[in-house]
Write a structure and sequence with these properties.
Elements lengths: L3 H15 L4 H5 L39 H4 L7 E5 L5 H10 L4 E6 L2 H14 L4 E5 L12 E7 L8 H11 E15 L4 H4 L2 H5 L8 H10 L2 E11 L4 H4 L5 H8 L4 E11 L11 H10 L9
Parallel strand pairs: 1-2, 1-4, 2-3, 4-5
Antiparallel strand pairs: 5-7, 6-7
């Protein structure tokens, strides 16, 4: 079994290559990493075409949900996207926060960061930035974000508990997250569990759903809610790369479930209201306190 460092290097190498692939190739595999399938399209990803703020050039087809749709993002929020890739969810979040808000994408793959920055430059956005770094050791101060989102990324990190604790650290008191991810109910066949491509493909690195939710609870989050859940079906022409025919039959007849879930949770504490300058009230107060001869009215 690979060490945490080795698994990270596998993912970094795979996603460096994935950054150069097209969306169709990525969407017809598992997170762009496994062999492509000719039997099913969009194995994991959801459709962004009707989502406001969506930028097609930033969509590499690597997600397994629509976390921004559930994230309760408000104007003026600071949003962090974990594993931001080419910037897809960052640009959707930017539409929600408006020009007065801020979006920070974090990714540890240099080619993804370069692609995201290029997309942001094309769009002329000055309140979206991309930082290179590990999401289990984020390059961010404590209490930075109102909202954290992530789309099919935590399953790629060996130490998921560390990531969840980092999310808790960077969220402001009263802040919240909405994360889409892959989880399991039952055990994967060993041939899938031990394969590097299946790990980078968001499957072998997935943990049990119950363990995932417990890690969120143990980190101190509250109001934990599964916002959406859908089964993920791996087509035969992908399974055939890893399993014999008899193993495929056993796999299909097992109690194993692979699911995409979108999870919401809140950090305890009172949310600080954003300061707004009420120009009308200030003007009225100024007029009531100044003499006409002073020239201030």
């Amino acid at each position: 079994m690979q060490t945490e460092k080795e698994l990270k290097e596998i993912v970094k190498e795979k996603y460096g290559k994935i950054a150069l692939q097209d969306k169709a190739q990525n969407a017809s595999s598992c997170c762009g990493a496994t062999p492509t399938s000719n039997k099913i399209y969009n194995i994991m990803m959801d459709d962004y075409n009707e989502v406001e703020g969506y930028i097609a050039d930033a969509d590499l087809g690597l997600g397994c949900g629509l976390p921004t749709a559930f994230a309760k993002i408000s104007k003026g929020d600071t949003v962090i996207d974990l594993g931001s890739g080419a910037g897809n969810d960052c640009f959707v979040a930017r539409h929600e926060v408006g020009p007065e808000g801020k979006v920070i994408g974090i990714d540890f793959t240099p080619s993804m960061i370069a692609k995201a920055r290029e997309n942001a430059e094309k769009l002329g956005l000055n309140n979206v930035e991309f930082r290179e770094g590990d999401i289990d050791n984020m390059p961010l101060n404590n209490n930075t974000a109102d909202v954290v989102v992530s789309n099919c990324v935590l399953n790629l990190v060996p130490n998921k508990t560390k990531v969840i604790n980092e999310i808790h650290r960077v969220l402001k008191p009263g802040g919240h997250f909405s994360i889409s991810d892959i989880v399991l109910a039952g055990e994967l066949p060993s041939a899938l569990k031990q394969d590097a491509e299946m790990y980078a493909g968001c499957v072998a690195g997935a943990i049990q759903k119950s363990d995932y939710l417990k890690a969120i609870e143990d980190a101190g989050f509250q109001s934990i809610t599964i916002q959406k859940e859908k089964p993920i079906v791996l087509p035969d022409d992908i399974l055939e790369k890893y399993l014999t025919q008899s193993e495929i039959e056993a796999y299909k007849n097992s109690n194993l479930g692979i699911f995409s879930i979108s999870v919401y949770a809140e950090k305890q504490g009172e949310k600080v209201a954003k300061k707004k300058l009420n120009l009308i009230d200030i003007s009225a107060e100024t007029k009531s306190n100044c003499a006409p001869e002073s020239g201030c009215c």
